[in-house]
Amino acid sequence: MIGMEPLVLFGIILALALNFVNGLNDASHSIATVVATRALSPFRAVLYTGICNMIGPFLFTTAVAATIGTAIVNQNGLTPLSIVVAMGAAIILVFVATRSGIPISSSHAMVGGLLGAGIAVAGPAAVILPSSLATGEVALSAIIGGAIGAVLLGLFTASFKEDVRLGAILGAVCGAALVIPVLMLLGILQVSGLLAIVLFIFISPIIGIVCAFLLDIIVSHTFRHSRRNSMERIFRPLHVLACLIQATAHGANDGQHAVGIITALLVSSGILMTFDVPVWVILTSAIAIGLGTCFGGWQVVDKMAKGITKIRPYQGFCAATASSAILVAVTEVGIPVSSTHAINGAIIGVGATRGKNAVQWRVVREMMTAWVITIPLAFVVAWAGYFLVSLVVMAV
Questions:
Q1: Is the distance from CB of 275 to CB of 63 less than 8 angstroms?
Q2: Among 192, 215, 221, 338, who pairs with 105 as Cys (CB 3.0-4.6 Å)?
Q3: Cα–Cα distance list, 50 to 250, 300, 302, 341 (Å)
Q4: Greatest CA separation found in the chain?
Q5: Looking at the DSSP assignment, which residues form a beta bridge with residue 127?
Q6: Over 4-45, what HEC string results?
Q7: Cα 79 → chain centroid
């Protein structure tokens, strides 16, 4: 136990560093739209969202922390060394992505790191896989939702004499993606752990696109006769409020990464007997992510604010509201979803209301590529890193 104490302390410091670089990269999520629309100055945007990121973990449950610490890798794969290696891999990836201006998901970097290090310790059996029943229920729900969506949107496009095939395809994708979170919120479908994390890689940006697109249509139609100055006066403060809620939800979801990891570290080292989150862990993790947000990842901000599409003030409100709703909903059920995916999807959604050419699809493809490879890349880095670190420790 005494020999493990320095490693545990080092692991806690690394976990807080992970939350700090999380704030560096993910600062862009809440700041990007308010900076793009000039609803807030960059300094105020960073300061306000940093405070909200610190408050977030105290306003929601610790369900996300429990998922990170108990529902991805079993206890055999969670040793102090494997947890430290997993965090190291995640920190490296997030830091490199931030320096490159790529808004990757720190949630998925951490998940990939845990999987890689866990398998290095205990083999494939370390991974907590979903049951075949849960997987079958998700697949059946997606098929039914996709079929309903294809029919409805196909008929809708046909009524306007548009491309029915394209409408049916989009309807199928949206229907399959939307039905799963709806059934989860209604308590009909039980999805958790690794299955939920993988599903929401694809679901959260689609929900962001659909919700922001529809909200933009409703707002623009409702205020179609209003002057531009009048709309700005109405939606500028609403946009700021929506972004602060988004930052709070981000802190509650992403801010719990370090909470889950530190608690798992304390359990694996025998300091805690059960997975009960201490208050000091929540406090220090919240401060770390808040400080990271205050320093900000401005290259990421620039890409999200200007690279995807041009955002008007009311559209910033629509994008922030849609992504906030997603983050609040998934945080309550304990899914460590990517806030990156949610807000980027929402920005794409508001841009798409002005036509497909209003969105810079090249930038979107670059970001989506980064999203898809984050977990596998973190997995490989952590898996290889564990064996390398083990050799060094044995040599010493």
A1: no
A2: 338
A3: 11, 16, 18, 20
A4: 74
A5: 73
A6: CHHHHHHHHHHHHHHHHHHHHHHHHHHHHHHHHCCCCCHHHH
A7: 26
The gap from C-alpha 1 to its chain's centroid, in whole angstroms, comes to: 35
Alpha-carbon distance of 223 to 86, in angstroms, equals 49
Q: Which long-range contacts (CB under 8 A, 24 or more apart) does 3-11 make?
A: 4/80, 4/269, 5/269, 7/80, 7/81, 7/84, 7/269, 8/80, 8/265, 8/266, 8/269, 8/271, 10/84, 11/80, 11/83, 11/84, 11/87, 11/261, 11/262, 11/265
Encoded tokens for 17: 């560093």
Query: Residues 156-199: pLDDT tens digits?
Result: 888 877 678 878 888 998 999 889 988 887 888 888 788 888 88
DSSP secondary-structure letter at 336?
-
Q: Which of 193, 7, 29, 195 is nearest to 88 (CA)?
A: 7
∠200-333-18 over CA atoms, to 5°? Answer: 70
The whole-model pTM stands at 0.80
Q: Could you report how far apart the first and last alpha carbons of the chain are, in Å? A: 19
Token pair, residue 350, equals 């508001």
Write out pLDDT tens, residues 19-78.
888 777 665 666 777 777 777 777 788 788 888 888 887 777 666 777 777 788 988 888
* C-beta atoms surrounding 334 within 10 Å: 21
What's the CA gap between 35 and 303, in Å, rounded? 12
For residues 102-119, give the mean pLDDT.
85
Where does the pLDDT of residue 96 fall: very low under 50, low under 70, confident under 90, or very high at 90 and above? confident
Distance (Å, whole) CA 140 – CA 252:
31
Residue 237 has a CB neighbour count (10 Å cut-off) of 11
* Chain center to CA of 335: 9
pLDDT band at 120 (very low <50, low <70, confident <90, very high): very high
